Amino acid sequence: MTVENFQVVVEKLSELRPFHPFTIELSGGQRFEVDHPHALAYRDGLAFYIAPGGIPFWFDHESVATIIGDTANAAA
Q1: Which domains does the chain have, with CATH numbers?
Q2: Residue 20 DSSP symbol
Q3: In the chain, N or C: fewer CB atoms in 10 Å?
Q4: Is the dihedral of CA 24, 28, 30, 36 positive or negative?
Q5: DSSP annotation of 70
Q6: Reduced to 3 DSSP states, what percent helix, strand and coil does the chain have, rounded to the nearest 5?
Q7: What does the pLDDT look like over 34-71, one tens digit per residue?
Q8: Which band of pLDDT confidence, cut at 50, 70 and 90, is reported for residue 76?
Q9: Taking the model in full, what pTM does it have?
Q10: Which residues are registered as beta bridge partners of 57?
Q11: Residues in a beta bridge with 12
């Protein structure tokens, strides 16, 4: 996934109100659900996700296979 696409999709999904959880799937098949708008920090294609229980995950735009969420109602 390109840096630009990653930034746009994550931003739209994170800022959608009311917030709806979304799923990020990495190239290796690992998936995690972003269940809170402030559980994910991102910049320049690099992201840090804090899973329930305080478990941290670092990943970058190149390791993202897909982001599953409803961007249909997100502001353009």
Answers
A1: 3-68 (2.30.30.100)
A2: -
A3: C
A4: negative
A5: -
A6: 20, 40, 40
A7: 999 999 999 999 999 998 899 999 999 999 999 998 76
A8: very low
A9: 0.83
A10: 49
A11: none
